[in-house]
Amino acid sequence: MTPPPPRLVPRRAVPLPSASSRCARGPRPPWSRSSVASPTTTLVPRAVDTTAITAMAHGMLREVHASGFAPLIVEVQPPRRILSELGSAYPRDVVGLGLAATIFGGWLTTLPLMFAQPEAALPNLFAGLGLAPGPLAAALPAASVVLVMAFRTWITTGVFVTVHDAIHGQVAPSFPRVNHLVGSVCAFCYASFSYKLLYRDHNKHHANPTAVDDPDYHEGGLKRWLLGFLAHYSTFWQLFWESFQFWSFVAVGQRLMGIPFGHMTARVALVWALPSLLSGLQLFYFGTYLPHRNSPSSKHHARSNDWPWVVSLVTCFHFGCCHEEHHAFPSVAWWELPTVRAQRKGLEGQVRAKCTSN
């Protein structure tokens, strides 16, 4: 005998919940599969499957960083590997931020020299050598002053070069907020400058070099040009904050460390004030006056020179020797300029050789 067919029992229809009931119940739990549950079904929370979420996140990151991407979300990687992955994904950011940190760190760590050796009139870098009295020992304090002044001037120039690279977005190209934050901090530490005003005026300079509306260019020779340059970038608030910081340093040394007022004034001038002033003159002469003097007839009204690499670095962090390349490629950082100039000269040489052969 064949068994009788199974009895079909109709399922009870479950009405859809109304909007008011849904609002009363609150948001649907993340583990529920359907907005309507069977009356006999008990909802049991289960772990969220993050496979799809992780894949989607990786896909989005791959689109942003198509090359050199490593999945840093799921894998627990050693710190060295993480740093190498970040370095391969953001090579220019790592170099730019590293150089900015090195320059600003050098500026910041040598600033306390104004408080060193409070018993002496000026700090002496060679005081610990213990030399016997003589001509050499007598000359070392003056040599120390020259060395401190030279290094502080050069490193202060580097602080402004960091500001300049931030204006062009080259300190941290992939992180604009970090880039402009570094530029703002360095601009104020350099000479109490407003980063926004520097940003505005420098873009005017690049838009139309050596023109009437170029804030970096003034006709009438070196003296008139320099006075116009300094007058344009010296504002009331900039001078106010510079004076405030100067006398604050003096007060800290005199009140807290017992350094005489005259000695402390000379120390602040040696370590902080004069290097900033000399740095401004250095930037003006090597980075503005020589490259744009007599309004060169090149496309960008700028010129470069063939000074050795070390001289180029010491004078103006390559912006003097590679100034035409900077105007032609403003998105190139200061440390990349010598390479760009060498490549450009090589291409020009190839072009000349082909023209000569033809």
Please state the average pLDDT score.
81
Order of helices and strands: HHHHHHHHHHHHH
Computed structural class: mainly alpha
SS element count, helices: 13
Distance between the termini: 105 Å
Rg over alpha carbons: 33 Å
Residues in helix, %: 55-70%
Task: State which percent range the strand residues make up.
Answer: under 5%
The best one-word shape is globular
Largest sheet: none
Question: How many strand elements?
Answer: 0
Q: Give start-end ranges of low-pLDDT stretches.
A: 19-51, 60-79
Structure description:
With 358 residues, this protein is an all-alpha fold. Helix content is 60%, strand content 0%. It is built from 13 helices and no strands. The protein is globular. The model is unreliable at 19-51 and 60-79 (pLDDT under 50).
Quick structural overview:
The protein is mainly α. It contains 13 helices and no strands. Helices cover 60% and strands 0% of the residues.
Topology:
Elements: H1 19-25, H2 51-64, H3 79-89, H4 91-110, H5 135-167, H6 176-191, H7 195-207, H8 221-233, H9 236-257, H10 261-292, H11 309-316, H12 323-328, H13 337-357
